[in-house]
Amino acid sequence: MHFPHDVVAMRRALHRFPETAFLEYRTASIVAERLAELGYAVKVGADIMCMENVRGIPSVQDVEAAKSAALQAGVSREWLDKMPAGQTAVCGELQRGEGPVLALRFDMDALPVHESDAGEHRPAVAGFASQCEGRMHACGHDGHTAIGLAVAERLTHVKSQWTGTLRFIFQPAEEGGRGAQPIVASGLLDDVDVFLAAHLGCQLPSGQIALSADGFLWAEKWNVTFNGTAAHAAMCPEEGRNALLAASLAVPGLYALPRDGQSDTRINVGLFQAGRTRNVIADHAYLELELRASAQQGLQRLTEGARRMLEGAALSQGVHVDIDVYGTAISAQSDDAIMRRLEAAVHETRAGTAVRNWPIGGGDDATFMMQRVQERGGHAGYCLIGADIAAPHHASLFDFDENVLEKAVNLLVAFVERSA
Fold first, then answer.
1. What is the rounded distance in angstroms from the CA atom of residue 118 to the CA atom of residue 268?
2. How wide is the angle at C-alpha 405 spanned by C-alphas 404 and 409, nearest 5°?
3. For range 353-382, the mean pLDDT
4. H helix intervals, 155-295
5. How far apart are CA 372 and CA 378, in angstroms?
């Protein structure tokens, strides 16, 4: 398969074919094939993902559909066959003499967001908008993957100044907080001395580099199902147990939960589905929601309140409620050693103005990777690469300043090449 060597062209090629959590078969195959071509030892699938206890693994039908679409798009079957059941992580490793193990993480997944075709939306105007209805790279992960491949190429050059082991980790399913933990569970991070993840945008303007992302929120992602009893809505409504009404009572109740004086909190119900038809008491309702807090104890209080609210709403209508914790995220802090190394790389490459901390305003399950590296005695960090955005992250008009892509490549290459 032909690979664009220009980082902007690669970003645009990836943007046209967005793939959601654990279905990144085209993207992962492109990454694996390119890394192998560059001389990296490539591992995929079960070698680097332990899927025990992972929630939301796609159905066999969805996996086969994603593989089929990837084949139609021109990727080789070689890599697809090594990624069963949503195991779409890719790791490329290169060794050069004695030295530390340095790992960089890049996320690959897109979102179930419909991309705008408005005249002011650059991907639509320039012809690289999503070709997949209802899916979109609305967070910049296409840019992250393109940056990762460009950095991997640059660091294979003979003149590149680094020694030790380089490990490029391309992660699926960052959205929803499910892709990092199976990689951690595989042991892939256990011998890492230096770890870095990066994100474009996050309200940080072009020309600035945040040496540390601050304020990662603790989070839980819930799938909530209400099960009631169907009945004729006019003839015998008293025989029914209304799941739709229970869910409808629960939603405003969730948003009305008391504020927390010791922790910033967030709650959002992003999906509500219920009912069968107009003359049947709804016996089923389904919510997808997330709860976030700036402290672990705050998240605990928030989840306890949310559970009471959901169970109370179910009790009021005589229905059953099931709460499935679908994904999680934790907080983490960058080590000073990583921040100093980044700052030196910023000055060396003139990539922008260094800012010590910048609030990320959300979360990223790369924090599980950071935690594992730090637990094992290594240093870990998470930086933000400023990029002006056309609309908020996760919006249908999202796009970012592509001029920062090459600067990001230069920055990460310099980060690797600097001695610890």
1. 27
2. 115
3. 95
4. 180-185, 243-255
5. 9
> In which residue are the tokens 């924090």 written?
367
Of 198, 214, 197, 209, nearest to 358 (Cα)?
A: 214
- pLDDT of 420 strictly over 70: no
**79 or 3, greater pLDDT:** 79
Of 135, 193, 189, 139, the closest CA to residue 162 belongs to: 193
Q: What is the DSSP string of 65-92?
A: HHHHHHHHTT--HHHHTT--TT---EEE
Give 173-204 pLDDT, tens digit per residue.
999 889 999 999 999 999 999 999 999 999 99
User: How many angstroms separate the CA atoms of 37 and 58, rounded?
Assistant: 29
**Can you give the pTM of this predicted structure?**
0.93
Q: Which stretch of DSSP H or E encloses residue 373?
A: helix 366-375
pLDDT digits (tens, 9 = 90+) for 103-135: 999 999 999 999 999 999 999 999 999 999 999
Average model confidence (pLDDT) across the chain:
95
- Within 8 A by CB and 6+ apart from 44, the residues are 28, 32, 79, 82, 83, 87, 88, 89, 90, 91
At 45, the amino acid letter reads G
Question: Helix H segments across 127-177?
Answer: 141-154
Rg (CA), the chain: 23
> What percentage of the chain has pLDDT greater than the value 90?
92
Residue with tokens 């990662």: 216
Closest CA to 358 of 243, 202, 234: 202
Spatial separation of the C-alpha atoms in residues 384 and 205, rounded to whole Å: 10
Distance, in Å, from the CA atom of 281 to the CA atom of 236, rounded to the nearest integer, reads: 9
pLDDT in tens, 220-255: 999 999 999 999 999 999 999 999 999 999 999 999
Rounded to 10°, the helix 243-255/296-317 angle is: 150
> How far is residue 128's CA from residue 9's CA, in Å, rounded to a whole number?
10
The answer for residues whose C-beta is within 8 angstroms of residue 124's C-beta and 6 or more apart is 115, 116, 117, 118
Q: What is the mean pLDDT of residues 291-299?
A: 96
Residues 6+ apart with CB under 8 A from 105: 169, 170, 171, 195, 196, 197, 366, 369
- Beta pairing class for 265-274 and 284-293: antiparallel
Answer whether 195's CB lies under 8 Å from 189's CB: yes
